[in-house]
Amino acid sequence: MTSPDLQGLRSGDLETREAHVHQLLDRAREHGDESAVAALHALVRYYRDYHRSLYSRAMNQAAVFADPGLEEPLLAALGDTRYNCQAWAAMGCAAMDIRAAVPQLIKLLDHPQWIVRDESVTALGRLGDASAVPALQPLLADEADWLRQRTADALARIGGDAALEALWHEFEHRRFPRIGYLASTLALFTPAVIPRLLTATESADPDQRYWAAVALGSSGDDRAVPTLERLMAEDRGTTVFDGEVRVAAKKALRTLRRIQAAIAERSRSRRVD
User: Which pLDDT score, from 0 to 100, does residue 273 have?
Assistant: First the structure.
């Protein structure tokens, strides 16, 4: 006999069924409701029997009902072009840590739908598999700024030497004038990246000095302070978008101090606790 929770995914108009999905998600999240979780699992496992709108709403909050037993249907949906919910299947694979999805996600990086590319990049970052780095690196040169930023974030989440080299190569061979996303993600590779950034502040290229200063500020590393102070006092360089290196260094120094203050405050709080 079909449970009322499962029946609610099949009966009524689409708007009513969508509302039912949200109710199931709320019950699963707030109370661990076994009946709600079972209905959501059925929606994923037998996804072809349900409207795509229900599937996408469930996958937006897949972590609420994550289960290793859903790997097979999620991988099937990831490759199902007819059902056309590959972006949301990618969300589910990321939320449920399905590492077997990595090869398929890499293939989806050149999908014609932007949302599929977007979610595939994000999923690869969350899954953290270094084998995806060579496939992600070319996207740092994509014409779409949002995809370049997503890719930089994904590489930073993956971490490791290969990801750092991919980001650094783009930093050195800058193809776009504004690369704040690269500066922010490179800062996450502290302490290893600090010597490179300090060297970059000596570059003849004012744009590289500018972005190196931004990255150093975001690192929160005390080794950056003398260099940022020097740039603030002496560097009169101007970027291709009329940004001043000395101004970037001044802002970076403030950012660095805020980061250090926040770290110190968290440390004090932990000691009190």
Answer: 62
